[in-house]
Specification:
- By secondary structure, the protein is mostly helical.
- It contains four helices and no strands.
- The radius of gyration is 21 Å and the shape is elongated.
- About 20% of the residues are buried.
């Protein structure tokens, strides 16, 4: 699997995970009603925005822009920081209208779920081809370790 394929697969997995956790949290908040619903809705919105940023960052074809790949990680992080600052500012005046526990639990569930899927998915693809020889002899044997088994 190519690196771009690995990132696309991870983006799909992260998107589905974030969407599923968001949906479950919204249903649970709706069943609880009142301020729980409002808290879950705001937590789901925040988690959904962070999931979207993660998915977009993973879908950018960084292999076409290798000099910008590290900037992509920082742009993703910066976008997530801006979302969090925006949520703090927006929710500052409306804290009494939502249950903070529902907000934080929903937000944390989405964030931790998406992060776990992202780490596991990218980690499981670490065996993707890198173009480097897997031999210890620097490729002198043409990749045949049996000629020099001690290498």
């Amino acid at each position: 699997m190519s690196q771009q394929g690995l990132f696309r697969r991870t983006a799909v997995r992260a998107g589905w995970t974030g969407g599923a956790i968001t949906a479950v949290a919204l249903v649970a908040g709706a069943l609880a009603g009142g301020t729980a619903w409002t808290g879950a809705a705001w937590g789901a919105l925040t988690g959904g925005l962070l999931t979207a940023i993660t998915v977009v960052a993973l879908l950018v074809p960084w292999d076409r822009f290798p000099m910008l790949a590290s900037a992509g990680v920082m742009a993703s992080f910066g976008g997530k920081v801006l979302v969090m600052i925006g949520m703090v500012l927006v929710l500052g005046g409306h804290r009494e209208q939502l249950a903070p526990g529902w907000f934080f639990c929903t937000f944390a569930a989405v964030l931790l779920g998406v992060t776990a899927v992202e780490v596991v998915s990218l980690g499981s693809g670490s065996h993707a081809p890198s173009g480097r020889s897997n031999t210890n002899d620097g490729g002198r044997n043409g990749g045949n370790d049996e000629v020099n088994p001690g290498a």
